[in-house]
Design goal:
This protein is of the alpha/beta class. It has one domain: Aminopeptidase, CATH 3.40.630.40. It is about 35% helix and about 10% strand. The chain has 7 helices and 6 strands. The strands form 2 sheets. Strands 3-6-4-5 form a 4-stranded mixed beta sheet. Strands 1-2 form a two-stranded antiparallel ribbon. Strand 1 and strand 2 form a beta hairpin. Helix 2 crosses helix 7 and helix 5 packs antiparallel against helix 7. InterPro entries: N-FG_amidohydro.
Length: about 250
């Protein structure tokens, strides 16, 4: 496996980058909704980063971007191809070949975003509006801290009605929530959200302890309850989307 051969750390060290088993939660909650699952390891390429966020500290092709997008994430080692992770340090045996990273962009990053854009366009054409729910997981923020974080790019990626509806569901279920802190959403929301045109996008981060086993490795006893919470969130988003379309049609 190319990823394993290129790493200077054990493969287990990069699992911290994963939204571990959040796809299991989504699959358990899913009804008839369209669902895209990222199958490539985030250590290989992060689909929630711009393809301009190439890290010059590790990527020989970073100079190809004019200039590279030196975001805070890139400076922290979490660019398009992550350079380092907490607790493990630097990830790669050697600097990344420019053509190798370009191939990852061409074969993984662009097709994913093209597929997502096509699905949103089809939904908008069919229903008059589209809602993207971008699911992630987060480490526990600590005792008494939020266990669900909703991101809408500080109000830029979705109508406030959608965010308020999700907040109400989480609060009714007794979960502590936060909005945009510490996760406001990233490249996926920035790229695909167009609320003024009827395409809304919201990111949700679930505390991994809600649905993983005690060691944080596999699905745990809380997965069913977390999936049920997500299902209620999906339902209220659909209700709000239908209400938005009805208002626009009047």
């Amino acid at each position: 496996m190319a990823l394993r051969a290129a790493l200077r750390v054990p493969l287990a060290a990069v699992t911290i980058l994963e939204d571990r088993h959040i796809d299991a939660v989504a699959l358990a909650a899913r009804g008839c909704e369209t669902m895209l699952i990222q199958r490539r390891a985030r250590a290989w390429i992060d689909l929630n980063r711009s393809e301009l966020e190439r890290d010059p500290a590790i990527d020989e092709g970073a100079v190809w971007t004019a200039p590279p997008l030196t975001s805070a994430k890139v400076r922290g080692g979490l660019g398009l191809v992550p350079r380092r992770v907490a607790g493990a340090g630097e990830l790669w045996r050697r600097r990344l070949d420019a053509y190798d990273v370009a191939a990852r962009i061409r074969e993984d990053h662009r097709p994913y975003h093209a597929a997502l854009a096509a699905e949103l366009a089809a939904a908008q054409a069919r229903f008059g509006a589209a809602v993207l729910l971008d699911l992630h997981s987060m480490p526990s923020l600590g005792p008494g801290k939020p266990r669900v974080v909703i991101g809408d790019r500080f109000g830029r990626s979705a109508s406030g009605r959608f965010v308020a509806a999700i907040e109400a569901v989480a609060e009714a279920a007794g979960y502590g929530i936060a909005l945009n802190t510490p996760y406001a959403g990233g490249h996926i929301l920035d790229t695909h959200a167009r609320p003024a045109s009827g395409v809304h996008a919201v990111q949700i981060e679930f505390d991994r302890s809600l649905y993983l086993d005690p060691v944080g490795d596999g699905p745990g006893d809380g997965l069913a309850a977390t999936a049920a919470l997500l299902r209620r969130m999906i339902d209220v988003l659909a209700d709000e989307a239908n209400a938005t379309i009805a208002v626009a049609a009047e």
